[in-house]
Write a structure and sequence with these properties.
With 191 residues, the chain is an alpha+beta fold. Helix content is 22%, strand content 28%. The two termini are 22 Å apart. InterPro entries: Cro/C1-type_HTH, Lambda_DNA-bd_dom_sf, LexA-like, LexA/Signal_pep-like_sf, Peptidase_S24_S26A/B/C.
């Protein structure tokens, strides 16, 4: 329940319900409902509240006594060709188990990994690393192509990149033409 934690944080910061509502683009009555437990914020609003007070969402929900956020995980999309850049942050979520600069979210643009149950619109959590084990799912950039999720196998002189989809055959690419951006460690999807 967010109520007591939100009230405590708001009072510590010395701001009124009205001022907090204005900061978060919410109605004052919405803040009142959160604090009294009559209403729960949606996930996006919960993240905004956590970010505003620099606390974890787990703290706000009463699941953790740890208040301080360690960092944020960015969500990036590759609507354009992959260009390593810190400008690609679209969505941020509190990080916990890894260093924040090791992780980012990737919005899956297609159903090419349907065999791995990764669908268009899912969000893949990617750990930045340039090497993966055979069979790992990784975000890969191939020379002159957009970055995409692939199952990766490595031989001495080439990578075998496999989309988990029945309509696509594995591709064999020279080692120097492949950039491993990171390993997929988790996939989130909406019900």
């Amino acid at each position: 329940m967010i109520g007591p934690y939100l009230r405590e944080l708001r009072k510590e910061k010395g701001i009124s319900q009205y001022a907090l509502a204005k900061e978060l683009n919410l109605g004052r009555s919405t803040i009142t409902q959160y604090e009294t437990g009559d209403r729960m914020p949606d996930y996006g609003t919960l993240l905004n509240i956590a970010h505003y007070f620099s606390v974890s969402t787990d703290y706000l929900l009463g699941n953790s006594k740890v208040r301080k956020i360690q960092g944020f995980i960015p969500l990036i999309t590759f609507d354009e060709d992959y260009i390593p850049s810190d400008h690609l942050h679209i969505f941020q979520d509190p990080a916990s188990a890894y260093q924040p600069d090791e992780l980012f979210y990737y919005l899956v643009p297609d159903d090419n990994m349907i065999g791995a149950r990764i669908m268009k619109g899912d969000i893949a959590l990617v750990k930045k690393q340039d090497q993966v084990e055979n069979g790992d799912i990784a975000l890969v950039s191939v020379k002159n192509e957009k970055a995409a999720l692939k199952r990766v196998y490595k031989s001495p002189d080439h990578y075998i990149l496999h989309m988990d989809h029945p309509h696509y055959q594995p591709t064999f690419i020279n080692l120097q033409d492949v950039e491993i951006i990171g390993k997929v460690i988790e996939v989130r999807f909406k019900l």
